[in-house]
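Blackboard transcription, Thursday session:
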Amino acid sequence: MGNTLAEKVWDAHVVRKGEVQGAESQPDLLYIDLHLVHEVTSPQAFEGLRLAGRPLRRPDLTIATEDHNTPTWDIDKPIADLTSRTQIETLRANCKEFGVRLHSLGDAEQGIVHIIGPQLGLTQPGLTVVCGDSHTSTHGAFGALALGIGTSEVEHVMATQTLSLKPFKTMAITVEGTLKPGVTSKDIILAVIAKIGTGGGQGYVLEYRGSAIRALSMEARMTICNMSIEAGARAGMVAPDETTFEYLKDKPHAPQGEDWDAAVENWKTLVTDDDAVFDAEVFLDANDLEPFVTWGTNPGQGVSLSQAVPSPDDFADENDKAACERALEYMALDAGTPMKDIRVDTVFLGSCTNSRIEDLRIAADIIRGRAKDPDIRMMVVPGSARVRLEAEAEGLDQVFKDFGAEWRFAGCSMCLGMNPDQLAPGERCASTSNRNFEGRQGKGGRTHLVSPVVAAATAVRGTLSSPSDLDPLPPATTGQHDDVVVPSASNAA
Amino acid sequence: MEKITTHTGIGVPLRQSNIDTDQIIPAVFLKRITRTGFEDALFSEWRKDPNFILNQEPFNAGSVLVAGPDFGTGSSREHAVWALKDYGFKAVLASRFADIFRGNSGKQGLVAAQVAQDDIELIWKVLENHPGTEVTVDLVERTVVCGSVTAPFQIDDYTRWRLLEGLDDIALTLTHEESITEYERSRPTFKPKTLPART
Ligand code: SF4
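(Written on the board underneath:)
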């Protein structure tokens, strides 16, 4: 019997097989190729090393950035919030002491930890990647086994470059067909989570496959893998292919010369064998998908944009019924309201789910030449300083500014509101991030998870919308971009 | 982690069940960036009450906490164990522990000794009638001794072995350091390195 992609990557990293003691097998010791570090989950790990007098084993496989606490305005001024400032300053001191490469606020490579790994070409197929952050699953888009870990494990990796892990189960998520225009990979993953539930992936590594996944860009694949965690999974993966190699080629840390050839040869073997068996399988038809949005307070509470807010009576399960009731109350929504009638106050385009250059291009293409709804506040927060620079070189910043959006500096920002970017109580937001939990974007804030496409169209109309709801642009104002108002499936996806 | 074979210290009777991690250390302390210095955070709400046992001599110098059943329920915060250790506790005796708390204790070198509730009651009486009585926790024999009371306790073999050897997770892994180094030698050269920086 053959192996799945996840099993292949796992097997290639076993330093020591777990012994079987009685009926129970001990965890395997796995080697870690890349350790990503940020300010929130690392201080106690560094201190643990210091207390035990242990060195950091592989600074050359470790990289740090500042993202969760960093402000997105006035980045040249001292950070006002004391806890935030202390965390950042502690990271700086720790990185200096232990010889860790750090990209600080103001540096061209600073940004959300899950954006900078791929952007620097450090995230590569077949690697084991860990970070003290649940959305480490993002890196699985390259065919890496990428896991979020806790602070004790962060220290363990720092000291030993390994982790003790028990094998996971594997689940295939097969998406066949072609996405309609305006439908993106965000809609795929929201539909997957609505289908299998926020606990459906528990104990599994998900592998996304099928023609619809193959057709996606790397950016779009990252969006999907990013939210594997919202389905409860340990990790998500996509097998590497020409799209992956193309993306990596010439990235700063991509292998060069002979190493590149050796790497690609190795990467090509990282596919699930035809006769491999998954522990579970899920199928989705891409042709049927529509833009997907959430109405509730967990990422599984979503519907197609053309549908209405569900009623507790729509759920057979008592728990789901109660959850729906609670969510509607928190979200201040009435059952039966068409999703498209929901008015929002703020549009947030950002987070490690959707803040890469492609996401900004897609949104800019929709708003270019259009006017923002006057009551909407739109925040555009590039995922990294590099993405911001790239966008500015393409003139996207001007498109956003002309539209009336705030063009900010890179970081996690309103994804979790650890910095000043927060919703006010009762404020409603269409957000391209990944979590719509109560209070996630600010105490009392109400979050609807959406794709960048829906975010942009919503900023124009003021209510949750897709580009097909927008009035066509008059010919005179469309300029050179009249052909890309609605992104096609291939570039939108 | 220090090796522990046996520990003797002043016992602190805490007659309460279901002491959850929010009582042991409230969430506000989780914002700290250190791993030590949590002694002031331990039971911080209860310690505002001058009558609380840890505000009284000689219990304020205690190192063996004797608590009611279901100690350490609630969140998974490792800070709860840090706070107990930083205060000076080496062992907690209770008839039931929350699983995660028990696991975290084993990792951090705090003995979570499971003692039958009848024996806990006897120990409480001794400690209350004779404040300052010492409790001996003998990991080798798996017994606790307090005054005239001698009682067995339960702790799983693996955790006991780690405590006796003073092995934390990292130290355990480092016993396989040779295998790690050997693995490193076989890693392909095309695998990425973060240093030197290329941008
Ligand atoms: S953008 Fe949001 S989800 Fe991503 S790492 Fe930052 S806080 Fe976490």
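Lecturer's comment: The two ends of chain A are 34 Å apart (CA to CA).
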